[in-house]
User: What shape does this take?
Amino acid sequence: MGEEGAKNEGLRGRFIRSLGKTRLKVSHGIGDLVLGEKRIDENTLLDLEASLLTTDVGIDAAEAIIAGLKGRLSRNELSDRKALHQALRVELTEMARPLGKPFQIGSARPFVVLFIGVNGVGKTTTIGKLSKHLEVAGFSTLLAAGDTFRAAATEQIQAWGTSNDVPVVAQQSGADSAAVIYDAIETAKRRGIDVVLADTAGRLQAKKGLMDELSKIKRVIARTDETAPHECLLVIDANVGQNALSQLHDFDEAVGVSGMVVAKLDGSARGGVLFSLAHAQASQECTPVYFIGLGESADDLEPFDPDAFVEALLAP
Amino acid sequence: MFESLSDRLSRTARGLAGKRLTETNIQDALREVRRSLLEADVALDVVSSFVASVQQRAIGEKVVSSLNAHDAFVKIVHRELIELMGVANDSLDLTAPAPVVVLVAGLQGSGKTTTVAKLARFLRERERKKVAVVSADVYRPAAIAQLRRLAEEVQARFIASTQSESPLDIVNRALTDARTQFDDVLIVDTAGRLSIDEEMMTEIASLHQALTPVETLFVVDAMTGQDAALTSKAFDEAIPLTGIVLTKADGDARGGAALSVRAVTGKPVKFLGTGEKSDGLEAFHPDRIASRILGMGDVLTLIEEVERKVDKKKTSRLAQKIKRGRKFDLEDFREQLGQMAQLGGMSNVLEKLPGGRMLPANAQGQVDDDELAQLAVMIDSMTVHERRFPDVINGSRKRRIALGSGSQVQDINRLLKQHKQMQKMMKRVTRRGGMEKMMRGVGQTQPTWRPQRRR
Ligand SMILES: Nc1nc2c(ncn2[C@@H]2O[C@H](COP(=O)(O)OP(=O)(O)OP(=O)(O)O)[C@@H](O)[C@H]2O)c(=O)[nH]1
Ligand SMILES: Nc1nc2c(ncn2[C@@H]2O[C@H](COP(=O)(O)OP(=O)(O)O)[C@@H](O)[C@H]2O)c(=O)[nH]1
Ligand SMILES: [Mg+2]
Ligand SMILES: [Mg+2]
Assistant: This one.
């Protein structure tokens, strides 16, 4: 597909194409449903459960999905593979839908977005991408180099600032992260900038001291504007397994997670862990997934669309 | 967040507690093993073959074993897992002619650059090697600057590179450079890449070919899910791996990916990354990873140690006594303290319990072994009558005991209160694994075990 074609394809198409590489592969191939044997029985469902598990859907969510299908099977609703395919789509979509919610820049100025997550998931890169995305949409952005711990983290975000042509507020390595972000917000206020994207150092959720530091960062941000930070985005690596549950839980407890970004969905990992996350939150308000990352360049960020996500997972 | 295998087995409807292994309870138990491993992110195929081999062993075992089913089964699973994880502490091969080249590879953000720095430090400090490092990551912003900083910190020779060079040119130049500078070891950092990115996989294969590394290490994040199997297979096919480094093992992830990668590639895990700083590198111990994947801390080691060191007679006498409804008196408390000391003190016991090492530092401080020793001294200053009937200890007795043990009356009060709590806890100790449970109980109630510090 040429340049033009790629552009005209639209977000949804690109999303599906990108995820399509890694679609759900079912033994006996749901994709080959027309060719395969027609009868659906318990064994078909067991195979299906297995293929769900290999995408990190997690045992609890997988069992819930299969239980739904078993119910349909016993009501004779699954006469052939086409029906199964359709029913599976319905079950998966139902589970994923609460995760879908568009990301919006509210009325506060500057609108402060804090990025948090474990080490190496893609926080800084997502900031670079989102900055570009917002600038294109007409918002001015400023980046806060809040990762003052990792070697050359400041240089990394500065490189994004340069390539996107947006300002970066940074201090020397080892500086107080909260102070850098505070400084960045004040600078944005003075300069009338719309959105501050604040980076933080990656941290493992089991490290209490580091999680306390995050709570402190949040408190300091609130001093600039009591409604800030307006979004706390947890970045999740598409390669992650069931540890994502404890990441969401613990980061939420420390600072309150308002939304998620799933990075690295362009790889062979299929991000089935989103179903695990959605299922675990079934009885409460679900933390939405705003964006997915589909590569390392500035344009590789897409809004999350649950229907397209499921469609891509099941595409033949 | 997730239950340990041991807890699962005790809880299942047709639980294993107290019973012998039979066909049916083996089936139930295997289901729990499967669940545990999946929750630990072990790849499904690996789980399936593992469960099959445990089944084989368990069926063989049920005839001979004299242990109760729970213990026998946990031991089989654990042993089998250790076997799969391979030999302990398989270190780097540094016998080849210098410069020995070490190549690291892996997905984006897995911890490669940090691992390069840790290895450089390790080799310089422990093996007295002259180490050079170079970055062939010309893609990620500031990736080269990151390695330069880290090289300075760990005092490794940094071979400069720039984003305008090709990775192949960089490594060829670095190899010549390392030869002329008589470096013992050259460690090459590479850009993170996806296993399905053909161009990038071809690139790393060409780097591998140019470098002919002695060690090619696959760096994998302990939090990785099911895809670890496919990814590591793809890397192993592109560049024959010699070992695995499991990073971010200082978190709470079960680290099932270690088992997947090990099983799929057959390559040994050589190191664990246990921190963001350059000293966060540890040798790999299969038994620890096995316990962790099963979510059991070093409970097994503890069971064994308890079996070995604890005076069985005394323990069962105590259990008998409690079962008959008799009180757990101060004499029993004193005995427990003694046994605790035998097991290497509270800190040793705590460290082996699940989550024990992750206790906040202040909680760990509260189970100071010296303070436990002080408790023992206080009890030693009592009369036999007082130990058997603590209720008789009035004000004047307290003053005497305090004087005799070099403590304060408040300390005695606290001891008596703690003993009361212990008594309550002991009542809850049921039939099976009395001692083991008691130990766990001790771990849980530890914050109240704290006599006032001596001034
Ligand atoms: N807690 C902890 N963090 C680690 C460990 N190893 C690496 N990290 C952190 O993980 C993040 C990624 O590490 P890097 O060494 O930059 O990873 P990389 O594989 O070189 O990443 P790219 O070059 O961007 O693909 C950084 O924040 C590191 O500080 C570890 O063992 N424990
Ligand atoms: N393939 C791919 N790589 C990504 C994506 N997002 C981030 N990365 C890479 O993942 C690595 C870690 O990203 P970084 O932003 O430094 O993570 P941080 O430590 O959370 O700030 C870098 O090598 C990024 O280039 C993505 O969506 N796809
Ligand atoms: Mg970063
Ligand atoms: Mg790197």
Q: What stands out?
A: Residues 1-11, 21-35 of chain A have pLDDT under 50 and may be disordered. The pocket of guanosine-5'-triphosphate (ligand 1) is lined by residues A 119-120, 150, 202, 204; B 106, 108-114, 137, 140, 143, 192, 247-248, 250, 273-276, 280 (CB under 6 Å).
